[in-house]
Amino acid sequence: MTFLAHEPLTLMISSRCTDEVLLDDRLQPMAAVRRAMKDAIETIQLADEQIFKVWIHEDESGTGADQNSWDRCVSRARNADIFLVLYNGNAGWPGTSERLGDHVGICHAELEAAYNKTPSKVRTIQLPAIEAESGSPNQRFQTYFKRQKLSGPQVKIGEEAIEWAGKLAVSALLDLARAGVGAGSKGGYFAGEALQWARLDYEHRRKVTTDTVVGYLKERSHGRKTGKLPNAVVMPVAGRSVAFVCDCIPAALSTPTARELVGQPFLRDHEISIALPKTTGGPVHLIACQKGVTEAQALRQLGFPDAVVVSAPFGVYVADDVQKIQMVFIANCRDETTTRHHVQRFLQWLDEQGEDRLLAQRARSRRRIADLIGREQADSSPAGSATRPKSR
C-alpha cells in the first residue's frame, strides 16, 4: 500500500493586531477577526484533508517584540505559500527602538517581502483606510500599496472580512494550481517601482538609489546634509556625530563596470574630512547594492581579508580595526521601499547589538587618521609649502 504525504499550504494573515473593527455589533481588535479567519480557513477540506495551515502573530504571543520577532514575521511572509493582507493603511509596529525603525512598519515590511518573493500569492481584503500624516510611515505604506495596484474586496465589518478570507484562500489555491507553485515562485522584482528602477541606466539608477538613502538618513534622527558633500549625511550615533557617505553599486557586484563606479571610496577620506564639521567622526561609507552581496565580495572591495565582517539581513558590514575603515553594503536595494527598509534594518542592528558605540569609536579614530593624512598631503605638495603660514 502506498501512502501519499499531505502537507497543507501555509497561509499568513498580516494586519495590525490592535486596530478596531466592527464585529458582532461591537468594536473589537483586529486580532479577533484574524482568529476567526484562521478557524474558518483551516476548516476547508478536500477529500477529507486539511488544505491550509494558517499563521497569525497571535500564535506567538508569548514571544517579545524584538529584532528576532521582526525577522521571523518577515521570513514567514516571504516563505508563506499564500499571503493575505487585511489592509487599513496602518503600517504597523515600527521596531524595537523609539529612535529607529520609524519609517517602515512591520505590516509594510511583510507585504514587501511577500510581494517581492511571489506577487501571485498576495491577496488583500481592504477595510476603510486610516488618515495618514504627511511623511509618516503610514503614508509611505499607503503609497506603496497603491503603487502595487493590489485589488481586493472592500469591506466595512469583520463578518464580511471573515467571509471573504475563505473565498480568497480558495481562489489563491486554484491560481497556484493552474500556474504551478514552482513557476509562481519565480516572481521577483519585475513589477511596480522595482521594474521602473530596473529600466534605468547605471547613472540614473545610481542617483535615485543614493538619493533615497540620503533622504532616509536625513529624515531619521534629524540628520543633516553637508553643503560640500551632497551624498554625505551627518547624524548622531551613540551620542556622537558621525558622517555617512552614501553611494550605490547599480548592478550585481560581479559586474566590473558597476562595481568600479564606487571602487574603494575610503582612499579619498582625507579629502572628504576637509568638508566635515570638526567634531564629526568618519566617514563611514554606506553603499546601496542593487542586488545581493556576499562577505567575500565586501572584503574584495575593502582590499584585504583581515577585518571585522558581519553578514546580516540588511547586507554586509565590514570594519578594519587598524585603519578604522568602515563600509556598509546594503543588499537588494531594488526600489524605495526595499532600500529604506534595509537601511532601517542596519540602523536597528547597530542599536540592538550595541554596535553603534563601536562604530562611533571607529569613526572618531578614522577622522583623526584622515585629518593627519590630509595635513601630510598638504605639507608635501609644492602649493601647500608655498602657502602654508610661517610659525610664530
TrEMBL record:
It comes from the Bacteria. Residues 371-392 are annotated as: Disordered. This is DUF4062 domain-containing protein.
